Amino acid sequence: MNARERLKEASRIVVKVGTSTLAHETGKLDLYRIDHLIRELADLKNQGKEILLVSSGAIAAGLGKLGLSQKPDSIPEKAGHCGDRSGRSHAYL
Asked: Residue 91's pLDDT is what?
């Protein structure tokens, strides 16, 4: 049985997406790609599958919200951005 056949038989599907999936090369979120991913996952959910979405793309989402083009390197910079409450997490989905 190949991977596609196993996927059809699965009752639970775990999808792991990272920064390269969720963001443009500029570091800004790729909302078109996120929308497409969510539509695919919703379709699977409508087929009765249990869907678990795991993301390591939170850094990319935060960088764009803070207006940064790259991750801060120094501890003081990182700590300073952690305290920025104006960019609280929002559900895009």
From this structure: 43
Instruction: Return the bridge partners of 50, or none.
Output: 12
- Measure the CA–CA gap between 47 and 86, rounded to whole angstroms: 38
Structure confidence by residue, pLDDT tens digits, 9-23:
889 999 988 888 888
Contacts of 65 (CB under 8 A, 6+ apart): 87
Query: With contact defined as beta carbons under 8 Å apart, do 80 and 68 qualify?
Result: no
30-55 tens-digit pLDDT: 999 999 999 999 999 999 999 998 88
Handedness of CA 11, 9, 52, 36 (dihedral sign): negative
Whole-angstrom Cα distance, residue 48 to residue 8? Answer: 11
Token pair 């570091």 is at which residue? 27
**54 close to 15: Cβ distance less than 8 angstroms:** yes
